[in-house]
From TrEMBL:
Highest taxon, organism lineage: Eukaryota
Family per similarity comment: Belongs to the TDE1 family.
Naturally occurring in which organism (per UniProt): Gossypium hirsutum (Upland cotton)
Pfam families recorded: Serinc
Residues in the signal sequence: none
Listed name of the protein: Probable serine incorporator isoform X2
Record keyword Transmembrane helix present: yes
Subcellular location: Membrane
Transmembrane helix listed as a keyword: yes
UniProt lineage: Eukaryota, Viridiplantae, Streptophyta, Embryophyta, Tracheophyta
Keyword set, alphabetical order: Membrane, Transmembrane, Transmembrane helix
């Protein structure tokens, strides 16, 4: 029995080492290749949800029976998105349950994660079709739960981004690379601050053209204050984290603020960009496609970053250890399925959203703004927490 398992391991290891990437994918021997297959399934689910939302009435006349949901005809598009999201979530959640806790390659759960594509694609299609057959009240319940799941996704993504920024800063400030990377760090930090200031100025010009635009002025000005606060905290003598981390965090915060203001509904006098994008032209379509791809890439990159959530002491990596957490990977995609549903319906299960638009509405705006403030709070806590804990330990010993 053990010799059979050993020969199977050696065979898969040889395939992983020496065979082509297509053969590795076909034989289910390369978990790195499997990531792209799951990302492709996720992307197809996104496109299907968009097609059902914008063109479901014309392409699927039989879906008119779903008009009994709350909100009338306009709810059909939102409900169609939730049904596709439910099917994608169910598939990712099944994969999460079947792979969570697996820490070794060359076993049955590793083979299930990296291979068996015909069975898994069939399972995904079956769950997506089934989601259109469940009663409307179940879809509405899922829509309410999806608000929480999408928030979990944003939190996981936030921790992943901050963890990457701090890791990059630690690498640049290590004893081995400090002298060699000093100039690069200064150039990168300077470029980050220049882009932040330029972005804030352009947001004032685009989204606060009149003194009456008090809300946008508040959003932009408070973002500038948060940038100054992060820089001051990072340069405090007891912390001394340098300019790089607050500069990169500033880029992230300014980007979130820009996305929040862009999410304001068209017709607002202070958001001329939204009014200009009210017509469906090639720029609107390109913006929609870029936003959709960015969402898939964000889910993909966050899914393989399970190490930033390992709070216990990390053990030495063995040869047969999995390259990334399979369970965490599928958990992120499951919450990502809820997140793309919220973006396509504007975080409102009874919201009528225009074609070729994504993440539009006042609910979307405030979700982004709260996410921005939460990002700054988490970053500041990561800076201050070591100092506070050290002070407490010193007080207790004294």
């Amino acid at each position: 029995m053990e010799s059979g398992l050993g020969s199977n391991r050696n065979e898969r290891h040889w395939i992983f080492k020496d065979d082509s990437w297509f053969s590795q994918f076909r034989n289910g021997s390369n978990p790195w290749m499997a990531r792209y297959a799951y990302a492709l399934i996720f992307l197809v689910s996104n496109l299907l949800a968009w097609a059902v939302r914008d063109y479901g009435h014309n392409a699927f006349p039989e879906m008119e029976k779903l008009k009994n949901c709350q909100g009338g005809r306009g709810c059909l598009g939102a409900e169609g998105v939730l049904r596709v999201s439910l099917g994608c979530f169910a598939f990712c959640f099944v994969m999460f349950l079947s792979t969570a806790g697996n820490s070794r390659m060359y076993n049955c759960r590793d083979s299930w994660h990296s291979g068996w594509w015909s069975a898994k694609i069939g399972l995904w299609i079956a769950l997506t079709v089934t989601s259109f057959l469940v009663p409307t009240f179940i879809v509405q319940i899922y829509g309410e739960i999806a608000h929480f799941g999408a928030g979990v996704f944003l939190l996981v993504q936030l921790v992943s981004v901050i963890s990457f920024i701090t890791w990059l800063n630690d690498c640049c400030q290590s004893e081995k690379t400090a002298e060699r990377c000093h100039i690069h760090v200064m150039l990168l930090a300077t470029a980050a601050y220049i882009i932040c200031i330029f972005g804030i100025i352009m947001m004032y010009i685009w989204y606060a053209p009149e003194p009456s635009c008090l809300l946008n002025i508040f959003f932009i000005t408070w973002t500038l204050v948060l940038l100054q606060l992060m820089t001051s905290a990072s340069l405090h003598p007891k912390i001394n984290s340098g300019f790089l981390t607050p500069g990169l965090m500033g880029l992230y915060v300014v980007f979130i603020c820009w996305c929040a203001i862009r999410s304001e509904p068209a017709g607002e006098s202070c958001n001329r960009k939204a009014e200009a994008s009210n017509k469906t032209d090639w720029l609107t379509i390109i913006s929609f496609i870029v936003a959709l791809l960015a969402m898939v890439i964000a889910t993909f990159s966050t899914g393989i970053d399970s190490q930033c959530f390992q709070f216990s002491k990390k053990e030495a990596r063995t040869e047969d250890a999995v390259p990334y957490g399979y369970g965490f990977f599928h958990f992120v995609f499951a919450t990502g399925a809820m997140y793309f549903a919220m973006l396509l319906i504007g975080w409102n299960t009874h919201h009528t959203i225009k074609r070729w638009t994504i993440d539009v509405g006042w609910t979307s705006t405030w979700v982004r703004i709260v996410n921005e403030w939460l990002a700054v709070c988490v970053y500041l806590w990561m800076l201050v927490a070591p100092v506070i804990l050290k002070w407490r330990q010193t007080s207790e010993s004294a």
